[in-house]
Each structure stands twice: as structure tokens, then as C-alpha cells.
Amino acid sequence: MLELAAALLPVLRGGEPVAVVTVARVTRSAPRGVGTAMALTRDGSVIGSISGGCVEGDAILLATEVLATGVARVASLGFSDDDAHAAGLACGGSVDVIVHRIEATDAAALAALEAAAADRATAVGLVASGARRGSLVTADAFGGSTDRSRMLSAAYDGADLLLLVHEPRRRLVIVGAGDHAMALARVASAAGFAVAVSDVWERLVTPERFPTAERIVVGVPSDQLAALVGDDPARAAVCVLTHDERVDVPAIAAALRLGVGFVGAMGARSTVAHRAALLHAAGVDDADLARLHSPLGLDLGGDSPDETALAVLAEIVAAQRGGTAVPLRDGSGPLHRHDAAAAATCTPRLEDVTR
Fold first, then answer.
1. Could you tell me the domains of the chain?
2. Beta bridge partners of 39
3. DSSP category for residue 78
4. Which of the listed residues 93, 104, 274, 305 has the most CB atoms within 10 Å of its CB?
5. How far is CA 102 from the centre of its chain?
């Protein structure tokens, strides 16, 4: 539900309840993981999705019932491989869901949704069993880590609790404001990154050139990085696209010194070698230099700014998410990492689950 915050808050603030269908457990293959949600409003509007479309029809029927009665439901939605193929669907597997109604006066829901809409770290618990099934409880009502959405067995007065977590968007700081930077800002914003752009040239760093960037800053990038990266540098990425060693060498050195999780720099191989020597001279040691992704980007074969931006973003996502960056057809095992995580975790089955 937290990923739907921006759409749910206006409905609730208008005094209307919503019914929310939340994924609590994934069996075999599913495109979305635990904690994914969709919602239904009284006027019939559907917000969000819990699959690629395979189970949305059943989910809407359940949400319609719960919106009318206020009584939370649990269900298992999905198909066997044979049934899925017979229906023309591309996947088997199933998802267990909790369907509950959020009232416009639910303080726990409103607080969590407001924090998520403001992109602040937040967590809320959805009671998954027992007499209070479907109720939301604040984070101080349960203990333990809030690093990811997952089911917690008997965590709330003996009842199972589905922990729902919102992490702030990952930050991408782009150093340089040329055409490649404009393209990277567009695709990274579309992919959910909070983008900031820094350059010394005021005429280049403008809202017109970077309409999707959250911050545009004129000045020496190396002096600004700490503020732009924020309080969690390990989750951030810095891409240096200036082609000016007077700017990019100090910026790269500063990013590595700050412990930024992904540091990349564009340039030809000869430029990379020359820049490495300058970074060594600036005090960057071999261990930190080995963390630098340069030349930047995966080999996708494109050469336009937009194609280059895709290659750069693909490398960032692969590095941050632990991907292999090889074609899926050349691999084996689950396609989705949450499928593998679910298979390795003992997750309690929801009580009185129905088909």
C-alpha cells in the first residue's frame, strides 16, 4: 500500500474508504513481490497492480466485497501451470493476499502513507491472522528489523504480521549537464531515482533542460556532493559526465571518499587510464579506484545519448541490485529475485486461505 501513497491520500482525505489487496506470500513465479498492493475506491477506480494482469480480476472482486462489508479477507490467487497455459497465461504460481479496508480516519494508515508520499523511510504492520486481521499497527507496536517487507510469524499479540516497508528512492547525482546528462536524468527519473544535477555552467543547468530532476545546482560538484548524496551514500549513485578533468577528478575522488555505493565516469579507455593516474596523484588508493565504473555503462551497442543513458542505468541497477547483467535466456532458476528469497524463507501460510 505504501507505494500507492500519492494516489490513496487524496481519496482518504476526501473522507472515502479504500479497499487494498496486498501480496503476503509468493509461491513459485510472480512478477511482483511481498508487500505489493492494489486498491479499489468506491467509484470503481483501480489503483496499482499486484501482477502482470493474471489475477487482477479476482482481486477486484475480493476488494469490492471487502469495501462493502469492511470484513478483511485472505485468499490465494493464481493458477497451476496447466491451468495457466490453458487460459493463455504466461506464468504459473500463485500469490496469497490480504484484502482489507482502510478508513479515512485510520491514524496508523494516514501516518504511514504521508511519510511514504514524502519519500521518508517508514514501516507499518498489517495484521494477517486472528481477531484483528486487516488492522494496521504502527512500527512501535512490534520489534525487529524493518529492512524489507515480509511476513512475521506471531509478531503481534500472537498474530502473524505482514510488515510493509517503504525505503526512500535511491539518489542519482549527475555531474555534468550535457546531452548525455539530460538523457540519463530522463530515464533515471522514469525508473524511480531521485535525480540531482550539478555543473559549473549556469546556462546548462536549467529546469528547461532537466525538467525531471529534483535538484539542479550550479557550482563546483565536488563541493556539493555530500549534500546531494544525502545521509545514505551506500544507496546512492554518482555519474560523472563532464569530460573535463578539472571537474571530474575532484568529483570522483569526493564520491569515492564519501563511500557512494556506485561511482561511474564516462570516457574513452585512454581517458580512463589518464584519469586513473590523476586520481592516484590526488590520493585515491587502488582499493577505491577499483570501485570506479569506468568506462561507464553496459555494452548494449547503442551510441545516441538516450541509448547511452539506458546502458548507464542498466549498469547502475545491476550493481545496486546484484544482477548478473547477462540475458535471462542464458540463465536458469527463478526470474525474479523475490521468488528465490521466498523459496529460501519459511513464511507462514495465511489461515483459512481460499481459492
1. 2-166 (no CATH), 171-321 (3.40.50.720)
2. 20, 47
3. E
4. 93
5. 24
